[in-house]
UniProtKB/TrEMBL annotation, chains A, B, C, D, E:
Gene3D superfamilies: CorA soluble domain-like, Magnesium transport protein CorA, transmembrane region. It is a multi-pass membrane protein. It comes from the Bacteria. GO terms for molecular function: cobalt ion binding; cobalt ion transmembrane transporter activity; magnesium ion binding; magnesium ion transmembrane transporter activity. Keywords: Cell membrane, Ion transport, Magnesium, Membrane, Transmembrane, Transmembrane helix, Transport. CDD domains: TmCorA-like_1. GO terms for cellular component: plasma membrane. This is Magnesium transport protein CorA.
Length: 352, 352, 352, 352, 352
């Protein structure tokens, strides 16, 4: 699995350097996506799901409305939706500015939030910028491409599963956040597999190439930079007072917070473990080198004196005592064996 | 002792990705355990202990009730118990979701808590997910397998030891937490032994394999990830106001907090010590390598010039002055000894 | 690109060691800049832009005034402006003291702020000390050299773009801060390119020189030391109560805070990544060394015994059994090949 | 000096795993100490000092009483004292549980505190568990062995030095804490000496054994784990409101806090310095190794080609041009010298 | 420049271990200094400066008084001054206890503060313990030796520069703190020079000795341990409410705080840079070693096989095929060149 590829830790392209505040520029890459305007109008008794061609076609009756906008490059549409629901220009700017950090902010008349979808698609991680506007009976979600993260929630609405139709609209907001969060678990499980594989390689197969540990570290940094702001945003939101908390919703947000804490704990643990694995890998390189050098030293220190000795008796001095001694070669052999044995037992003694 | 084996730092399996909130799925591994429903009904004067076949059989009279459920895979039973005592579905979801973090939360009508049992059983560490629901006169505990962590408390109840029968039911809640916490001390003592053994190996036996230090680090990370949330949960709980604090209970919770602080201090100290031990181990590898290389260098630098000299006099030049000089070999020997002595004293001087 | 050159992490020259508090000394280097006093007087209906020779020439009517002072070495002018608008001497001291940290402070009758312009100019990073005094209908900005950071805002004012003319003067203050902040994005993008280039060099080209990583670290430290105080200042300002917040301005400051958080997150991420890159570079050096030593060891341990053997048969002993054996040289060759093969397969076995 | 020996960073033996809360078990090692019950009854006019055989003998009159219990293994005595002064069983449990962390807690009717005596005795560090119960006119101190830490305070009481007799009983409590704290200064000075000796060894004598740095780190960890909770306890105590603060006592507690801050600053500084010293020691090992390898390389690279050359001319080829050239040996010598000189100047050039 | 010499990070000598609280012992080293009692009596209209022989001679009229005591070893004088102005004995203890941390405390009737003078004198850093008592119209300063840090303030008072005579006495207190703080800038500039020199040595001259980096680290630790408490003290003081804040003084304290923040930022930056420099130095040692070993390996692996070959043909076997072949030597030479060239191109290929 390739967890994060292509990898780019911070899309810092700022929307409109030098432009007026509230200038809408889509800063993402999905500019060829078909823009769709899907509506799910629901109440206790049922749910209608239909597509609009324009936001003007929308008739607000005594129901709850989820307007799901896919594709962010149609600036005019975004502006029109913003005008219809009186969304601040600065918020619309963030809707189309894909490198904006996650946040939840309470405005006059609506709640505005930015999140990051991170999900697996064919073994590749996809990143998507998502915004949600939560007004009295309307929730508008904006996303870059059509995708399956929110599909479960749509299904529950259409089929009338659980309490989602009966509950106020902030329960829908919670459900979408819950769907987003569920994806992080999958990502982290996928990361965990990558880590475990690497651990086996390092521990058992003595892998000494650190490129993979480096890549894991970078991916963890990315996950932390995504999850940190989301956790912060939801924590601040649930700990504050809000008109957007209907009766009985608190345990649901608390449950969401539980998940985010767990994800964040997990990322931190893996970070420490990655550091630890790197340290051990370095230790293995040192220990291996030590062994290699020891082998070299043992061989060299045994044979270097012996070679010298052989060299000595290869000298062509005319008067060389003992050269014509009958047992010279046997004595030489014995001395060599003695020297070698002596060296070896010395090394044994020093526990090499 | 094998502290944590099989080791898996984060069970991140989320209960029901994409499912409705409040979907009950047992995410643990103990699916063949016999499900039992044990009741301890007690008051000042006595304590009855019996098994139920179904929760409907339970008759609530003017007593205090501890309902101890063993085995979490019978979802229907859990749901029925939840309905009888009006426990929120999201809480029941956490009861059977074994990777949920520890926490204490105050709900309408009851207090809900999640903890982790970590205990030694035949030299192996067992992990168990435990939840407790504390209502007016009823405490329900849920655990994965039958075990001995709560046995002491049962014994005190049945035999009427101490003040446990006389005190309100939150004292039972405290007693169970205290029993859980006691196990952590045993775990840490066991960890301490492992550390001390490793320290001896590194310091005295020059162990250079870092796999064990790596394993200890990982185990410490696991202990921190378990103890951190428990400490946080109990600290927040005892520092807040609560209807679940009967008169005179505060010193007991404070005592519990003392133990958790001590455990947490201890884990942090061992963490630092493990880092320190790793650093020293690396230092030893470097120092050893240094010594080996020095030995090699001393041998090489002494014999390399001598061998060259021997080689020179082994050359077959026809006109080689001094080759037929009578004392050539003696002079050669003397020069060799002088060179060797010179090198050695040079090394002594430089304190090698 | 040369990100920060000449690099000097802390201009600590203090204004007037031993002098009286409120002694004005320009501590920067731009002492030859032409001092200009530019005024933009604007209201809903229009904007006039003109230069003054002296501050006395300024006529305050029922408009909003932006007085933009370029060049800080004319102490007398600064003092005169200070007197006219009743700015505290300690603040004027900071206006001309270029190493003063960024801050926003609320004084009696005006708001005083210090910021740092950091912007790219011909591939070089420029640093500039900027102060702003925000009074009822007047904003005075002081900068060291004429430059283009504020030019966009001037253009919007003159051309009447957006809401800048219609909004109260604190919107102008916000707009200038926004223009400053936009430059940091450009700087960080430029830093990101430098990092990515270095990463490629280290990962793919095996660069082992750490000078560049060192330089990147230093540059990050500088960016952190600049951005930290600015973020802190704006955070404290927007979280407090102030007479300087007109109706509807809050979302703008919040947007600014978003940008600063993003910049600061980004700098922190790059810092971690730089540390990580350094660690990997070190790992590569170790691994390379290990391979080199292994090569040496393999060669040496194979040939050292063989050379010894050759030396032995080169000895001039008169009685040397086997020297006149016909197949001696073939046996010798076979033995050599056997030894070499044995050593090689031993190394293969140990996975060298 | 042997600072901490035998060294055991955390006595985690828990009092009574599985026992009832409030079970008294002495968990220390001083079980043969003679148990004494010393009373100092004092007032403005005098001070009587006597030993009791049993706590029942104590007559409370209109005086202030310091009851100093030495020896903690006589559980019955401790329980009796606890009953007489209505001390909570959980507190008595902590009195005899020597691994309990330092703390100050306010109970109904008394203040309960745990501290650690750490003092030098014959060049060895002693550790002692001390508890104090401060009631209206009575202070009870419990310690493990008779010792001299509190002797100064007793002397001042008996001799009537200073204001101790005239001040309320919380001044006695402060005086005992002050006496405890004074010992930490002595310990740290002793640690400082050890550090300075080690620094000299590393810097000047090139010590490369890291065992001592490891030991110092461990000792610092121990000191931090002792001082941290004490500082925390006293800080929380002095910053809170309390019935146990008589008029004029605050400056005394503040003075105590000053000392604890200084000790704690000092321990932190030494910790950083120890880390720094370790880093430098490692650097020295690397640098030394580098020098050794350089020596080896210089020798080898000079002589290896020369030896080869000598070997060449030692070959027994029948047709070997130049072998019978008269000046062959002189040319050979010249070539050798030239090669050696060339290599050496190359190394000089590369600044080896 | 020698920044800190002799260097002693923590003077922990405690005033009077075992003595009564409030025992006055001068713990510094300047015991031969002449004790002087200088008075500056000033008001709007003038300033008189004179020396007293005894504190009894002081006549308090309707003026502001700065009493500057030089020399702390005359305990009796200190006690007398303390009595005259009703200073608490514990504060007097701190006046003469030179290792007391910096602090500001509000007492009944006066403000008590401790600071550290750190200043350059003939290229050496001097350390001095300074205390100040600020009462209604009197400021008493105590310092160890006569020196020039406060001289500028005296001059301003005597010459009537600025607003110092006209302002209430807390402005004098501020002015003295400002004078102290100015010295820290000088110290840090001096440190910066030392750092820059070292950086050049490491980067350009390949210095591999880490002693100097170690010394810089230690000096930074010292500066942090001095500046930390001062910053803390002034921050707490200016953020609190106080009777000692006259009208208009706040901006002056804020200005002081600015300086302390800047100094403290600077020290932290240098600390990170020192760590970074150390890391790079270590990297250089590794890289150098790598190059040396590569050189050795290239030489050895080329000549070792060649030498073996030469050795083979130097063997004295009687039947040695090819020994009397006419071109043997030429073939041998060709083979040698081929082997060497092969090895070299292999190394080139692997980019050594
Ligand atoms: Mg903009
Ligand atoms: Mg982002
Ligand atoms: Mg999508
Ligand atoms: Mg969920
Ligand atoms: Mg849940
Ligand atoms: Mg680590
Ligand atoms: Mg779910
Ligand atoms: Mg968990
Ligand atoms: Mg169980
Ligand atoms: Mg307990
Ligand atoms: Mg206890
Ligand atoms: Mg460490
Ligand atoms: Mg000044
Ligand atoms: Mg600055
Ligand atoms: Mg400019
Ligand atoms: Mg902006
Ligand atoms: Mg925005
Ligand atoms: Mg790192
Ligand atoms: Mg217990
Ligand atoms: Mg302890
Ligand atoms: Mg004792
Ligand atoms: Mg004291
Ligand atoms: Mg004091
Ligand atoms: Mg360090
Ligand atoms: Mg004392
Ligand atoms: Mg100090
Ligand atoms: Mg002085
Ligand atoms: Mg100043
Ligand atoms: Mg200033
Ligand atoms: Mg470091
Ligand atoms: Mg660093």
């Amino acid at each position: 699995m390739r967890l994060l590829d292509p990898f780019n830790i911070n899309h810092l392209k700022k929307s409109g350097v030098g432009e007026l505040p509230g200038s809408l520029n889509y800063t993402g890459t999905h500019k060829k996506v078909e823009v769709t305007l899907e509506v799910l109008a629901y109440g206790k008794d049922g749910c209608q799901r239909y597509l609009l061609r324009d936001i003007d076609e929308l008739q607000i009756e005594d129901k709850k409305y989820w307007i799901n906008v896919t594709g962010l490059h149609d600036i005019e549409l975004i502006r029109k939706i913003g005008e219809k629901f009186q969304v601040h220009l600065l918020d619309l700017e963030d809707v189309v500015h894909v490198s904006q950090r996650s946040k939840i902010e309470i405005r006059e008349g609506y709640l505005f939030s930015i999140f990051k979808m991170v999900y697996l698609k064919e073994e590749l991680v996809q990143h998507e910028h998502v915004s949600m506007v939560l007004a009295d009976k309307v929730l508008i979600s904006f996303q870059e491409i059509a995708g399956n993260v929110f599909d479960g929630v749509k299904e529950h609405l259409v089929q009338g599963n659980g309490r989602i139709r009966a509950m106020p609209i902030d329960y829908l907001f919670y459900s979408l956040l819950d769907a987003l969060t569920d994806q992080y678990f999958l990502i982290i499980n996928s990361f965990a597999s990558a880590f475990n594989e690497l651990e086996v390689k390092v521990l058992e197969e003595n892998l000494s190439n650190t490129d993979e540990v480096y890549r894991l570290r970078k991916e963890l940094l990315y996950l932390m930079s995504v999850i940190g702001p989301i956790r912060e945003a939801i924590q601040n939101f649930t700990m504050g007072e809000s008109d957007y908390f209907s009766h009985g919703i608190i345990p649901y947000y608390a449950d969401l917070m539980d998940h985010l804490k767990q994800i964040s704990d997990s990322v931190k643990s893996y970070r420490e473990m990655t550091d630890s694995l790197y340290a051990m890998q370095m230790a293995k390189v040192s220990t291996d080198m030590n062994k290699t050098i020891m082998t070299l030293t043992v061989f060299s220190t045994i044979f270097i004196p012996l070679s010298f000795l052989a060299g000595v008796f290869g000298m062509n001095f005319k008067y060389f005592p003992g050269m014509d001694y009958r047992n010279a070669i046997h004595i030489f052999t014995a001395v060599c064996v003695a020297i070698a044995a002596g060296m070896l037992s010395y090394f044994k003694l020093r526990k090499w």
